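Summary for the steering committee. The consortium agreed at its last meeting that each partner would contribute one worked example illustrating the joint modelling workflow. Our contribution is presented below. We chose a case with several input lines so that the handling of multiple components could be demonstrated. No manual editing was applied between input and output; the record is shown as generated.
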Amino acid sequence: MSLIEVKDLQVHFPIRSGFWNRITDQVKAVDGVSFKINAGETFGLVGESGSGKTTTGRAVVGLEKATGGQILYQGENIALNKPKERLNYNQNVQMIFQDSLSSLNPRKRIETIIAEPLRNFQKLDSETEKIRVLQLLDIVGLGPDALYKYPHQFSGGQRQRIGIARAVATNPKLIIADEPVSALDLSVQAQVLNFLKKIQREFGVSYLFISHDLGVVRHMCDRLAIMNHGRLVEVGSRDDIYNHPLHIYTQRLLEAIPQVDVRHRQERQQERLRIEKIYQEQKNDYYDQAGMAYPLVQVSQTHFVALPPQAASKRKLTAQGVD
Amino acid sequence: MKSLSEQTIDPQELKRLTQEAERQATPSAGKIVWSEFKADRPALIALIIVVCFIVFVTIASFFINVSQMMNTNITAYLNRPLQDGYLLGADTGGRSIMKQLIVGSRNSIGIAIGLTLISSTWGVAWGLISGYYGGFVDWWMQRIYDFMMMLPMTMMIIVLVTIIHNYNAITLTLIFSCFYWLGTSRLIRSRTLAESKKDYVAASITSGTNSWKIIFREIMPNISSLIVVDTTLSFAENIGVETGLSYLGFGLPPKTPSLGTLIANANDPNNITQYWWTWLPAALEIIILCLAISYIGQVIRRSADASQRQAVGK
Amino acid sequence: MWKVILRRVLIMIPEIILLSILVFLLAKMMPGDPFTGSINPRAGTAEIHHLMRINGLYDPWYQQYWNWIVHLFHGNLGQSYQYHESVANLIGQRAENTLWLSLFTMVLTYLIALPMGMYAGRHEGKLPDTIIRIYTYVTYCIPFFVILVVGLWIFGYVLNWFPTTGSISATASGFSGTILSRFYHMLLPGLLGALFSTVNIVQYLRSEVIDAKRSDYVKTARAKGVPEKAIYRHHIFRNSLLPIAAFGGYSITGLLNGSIFTESIFSYPGMGLLFVNSISYRDYTVITALVLLFGILNLLGTLLSDIILGIVDPRIRIK
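What follows is the complete predicted structure of the assembly.
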């Protein structure tokens, strides 16, 4: 059984307009997304900005109200609108935010910030709590002198590590990492990513790793999903996606990874142009009239692609959902 | 999972670290404001004037028998200042202006403080709740706000004062408070809207903190400087509220001296020129008090901005 | 845009209904009844009861409210007990005076505020700017009625430059004489009112100009070689003109509120003074009519400002 299963998740935002300010349209930020995350694995969610990946992450942790679909945690349906149920759920599902500065309350000391989930979920006495906070700081490589400082006294990388310490405070099973390193310098990125990996090794936590950086995702993730316009276009293992991409959008995305390879610059450019040409030609096949991707079909044990219906039936593939 | 025993720190070490961290920590907003006052001589003088004045009128008014003071004394009819021991002279009823000024100041300032406390508390809570919850709650709270904005404030207060038979300083303060929270609530709401979108609020939600705690323990400290500045400036403004209505004759009940009723002596064309001491001291007092308080507000705003800059780390 | 305005107007309807109910209930709660002492000081209680009954004053409140509203729509605001005149006529005469004074104040406000704000923003940090800032700071924190009383004392009595009461002198005659006298009487209250209401506009315009000075579009204009004068006139000033015009609508609320003080202090026979007198005489029909009228005027002022801002800011327009 997987740790968490997202079934046909929808997050629609209403657009009000017209004379009576009625809901006339919906922004379909997330429109029927399904995936599973197994215990101890890192599942990547990749897409360009505006593709709905952050909204998906926020809906999974309960910050955004899902307008449809289900979230199953260890096989149980979680009703995120019930405060009590949500509280239990959030003990096991935590989040790391993109902007490390804004995610830490500027008026609170680090001790209070990290202790916040502890105080709400586990009632510890103040001594044990302090020791637990020190322990958490140690896990992310910060010394006890950080305890009484304020967030602005740290560098971006350190702040993000504090955010990580807060997220792992209650020993969650799943952490949603929403672009955890995209606001950091490249040199610091690796450091923070390594802390994330170390924590995974030690505590066996799963990550839903949201990023637009395919390089980082390749480094971090076992399986990943490509998201486009609120839908998944391809789900598969790292090998499936990086070496055998089937959807034109994935191909185009991968081709956009910059490479430092001066000798083959011409060839690389030719290749990019070829892929772009294919993309422009086949765009209408791969997306329906509304510009949305088709449902996923299984092409191998691990690999799912949003192929157009004709192509899918030609290959005798049927939509079976994600496994 | 590492066990706790592996990580224990002995209490001595913990204490030392606590102290060291305490030293290194950023100064609190209060300290920054205080250092700003120490650096700014006029501001310090303004602060001392206001505080000393309030303390003085409060204490001095205890030694004045108000009903005796308000009795008419024909022998002192319009005494000039310094005449017959009347320091600031007397009005047409032969009542000492000086004593009326002291008691009137206490009444007017007391009402202004009460009004500021009630209306700011209400306005801050209203703005925080409206801005944090958003959606339906916000919509309704804004409709109520719009409706209140439309009411002709001064007229409504005057009408309410005439309706209530036995009103005193407290009922008067409550009537004013019904109308003077609007500005604060709007200001706080717009800041709360911006603050609620920040990730630390989302982090608190996922950390299981309940909404009330998030509103009053997480968001409110972050807009505290705005609240302090707004409260100080509305205090200066609120001095004009009661005195203005008392001036028109709809404020404090007759026989209760107020700075406004003293200035109302100027309504008489004879008083305003010939017997200037009956009204001018009260007018000057209001002017000085309002200037000093809002100057203090400006200084707090400046230091609040400075600490804001420091907190953001720029 | 028209849809937005129309919706905005429709939202006003429940607000006006609510206001009218509130005003009506407040009037009901006021002490005393309109007949005691009005017709015949020695009228017995039985007679008063009879009068109350035939005038429908014992009906349930919603019935009375409905009657009141029906009368209102027929332009019948009732009779003033104090002036023995129809309220509509009474307010009509006074409204004219208040209107002229308010209009005059507003014109003066803009005449003073626009050059001041532009100048302060353009020469930020220099001596005139400092003086203007001190001026706005001082007038902002002193209560309005104190400014009026002190102004009246200095300019009206001590220096004797202006008349101190009324809206027209008794000796004024002829068309131009009347107008000049009216104008002369409005000058001091208008100036003092403008002194007070310039503050917001000056502060807004100043910070707007300072922001604009550092903005990229002004830098671009400067780089293109647009002369400094033209930059201020065509780029900066024009951009802040409409938001400043919107202040006009909002300031109606302030002017009406202020008129109660201005008119009492200068004994200027407008609606504010009428209100204060009516309160003293417990003249309820006049009071309710005035409160309702002021509320509706406030609403129209905000509507006007919102529309102007809607024209300026496309974000509001779309919403």
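Chain B has a mean pLDDT of 83. Chain B is about 75% helix and 0% strand.
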